[in-house]
Design brief:
Elements lengths: L1 H11 L8 E4 L2 E4 H19 L5 H5 L4
Length: 63
């Protein structure tokens, strides 16, 4: 990436502030981690609920 690229990224994202956190009793996490965990749960639920592609072909075309 180089020094120039690092300077440009530093100009785009201001990291000079305290982190935003979520506090639930004994759980203390950053908002970014909460968002990532939420997205992982959504993807997991979709993987469980949605049928696999080509499942009809493997069953022998029941229709």
């Amino acid at each position: 990436m180089g020094e120039v690229g690092a300077n440009v990224m530093g100009a785009v994202f201001n990291l000079n502030h305290p982190a935003h956190t979520v506090d639930w009793n004994f759980i203390h996490m950053s908002v970014a981690n909460v968002v990532v965990i939420g997205l992982m749960l959504v993807v997991f639920a979709l993987a469980i609920l949605l049928p696999f592609p080509g499942a009809e072909r493997r069953r022998g075309d029941a229709s």
